[in-house]
Amino acid sequence: MNSIWHIIVTSTPQIVAAGLKYTIPIAIISFILGLIFAILTALIKLSPRHGWFSILKAIAYFYVWLFRSTPLLVQLFIVYFGLPYLKISGIFPNGIQLDPWTAGIATFSLNTGAYCAETIRASILSIPQGQWEAAYSIGMTKTQVLRRIILPQAARVSLPPLSNSFISLVKDTSLAASITIIEMFEVSQQIAAQNYQPLVMYALVAALYAVLCSILSWLQGYLEKRTSRYIKPIN
């Protein structure tokens, strides 16, 4: 028992350090970039424009379909291990070679963007059409309506599912170990290989992930209360 406790005490700082250095930064950067992809994709899919814009819509639909229909681990392997073999004469003669950090962030961002795009699209569609018409009646342009009226309300509606996506992304960063990023799970694997206590190490890293996600869940609840403080409760 003392031996197990010693392993936990000595290993926890190493795993936490990896979380602060890699896990959390990867999750935050990937989520911010993913949100940018998501907003652009959602607006393109909702646009009534036709003609050349139909090409952009087709790309947006294909992007969402592709990343929602394939496993995240497979996507990581394709980006990190597969793209170096995509050799195009004159453009990529040696293939597309990305370091683990760049490959991980790129994959996580694109994957998150595909899922969040549908969340944002549904949130925008949930805003009553009458608000668009009322805004147009006082002379607002479409861009002004989106920026001042629709998107702020859609942000509040989409907050819970987007928060869930971020929490899932934090857990999914453990897959980055498969492309040699030394995040929390990779550190636990390395320590387990040294002390031959895989059960203790994997249980420890699971507990640390649980603590981190619990903090994020509390923060989600706080943000929901703050953004809904002007809404009257249903009796």
TrEMBL record:
Entry's localization field: Cell membrane
Top-level taxonomy: Bacteria, Bacillati, Bacillota, Bacilli, Lactobacillales
CDD domains (alphabetical): TM_PBP2
Recorded coiled-coil stretches: none
Keywords: Amino-acid transport, Cell membrane, Membrane, Transmembrane, Transmembrane helix, Transport
PROSITE patterns in the cross-refs: ABC_TM1
Cell wall biogenesis/degradation found in the keyword field: no
Family note: Belongs to the binding-protein-dependent transport system permease family.
Protein's membrane topology: Multi-pass membrane protein
A cellular component annotation (GO) from this entry: ATP-binding cassette (ABC) transporter complex
Name of the protein this chain belongs to: Amino acid ABC transporter permease
GO terms for MF: L-cystine transmembrane transporter activity
